[in-house]
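agent> call fold_tool(seq_1)
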Amino acid sequence: MKEYVFSVEGMRCGMCEAHVNDAVRKAADVKKVESSHAKNTTTVVAENLDVERVKTAIAAEGYTVGEVTVKEVEKKGLFGLFQK
């Protein structure tokens, strides 16, 4: 599982975040998507992600997409919460 953090300019409110999240969900099969207009980021957790397709979908909504960072994430189950 990988976490992709997109730099997204132009989000001004919670509705903007919702529009970006919906665009990402329509463009790709994702486990989780979360946007923050305060941080100018959209974080996506997915197995395999077509980054260019997601960037295009976000841009089509009127937002500017900058750099994308990717890192591996561990999937933790319920009992993983209690482990360090």
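agent> call fold_tool(seq_2)
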Amino acid sequence: MADFGNDPGLWAAKGIGSAAGAAVSLVYMLPKGRHEAVSRFFTGMICGLIFGGPAGLWIVAKLGIAGSLSGTEVMLTGSAAASLLAWWMLGAAVRVAERFGRGSKL
């Protein structure tokens, strides 16, 4: 198994992709205040850094373009996608919890 842990190029791609995805998520759904904006941005950054690699591999496998992209491009794409989708998935989870949470009659 390859060791990608210490490659500065891949870490830079993860960081840039995560920041881009977090910024785009803020633009799509404007935050209500400064606190929400900061928490959303850092949530996106962390999710992009953690899940960027697996997300990038999944995306290129689904699109069938694995042979035409470099590792850096895969990491950049995956980090941006994971970062962008992090807040949307958390928002969906909160809505489901609110709907089926306290006081609901099933």
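agent> summarizing second result for user.
The helical segments are 8-28, 34-63, 71-100. Residues 10-90 form one domain.
agent> awaiting next instruction.
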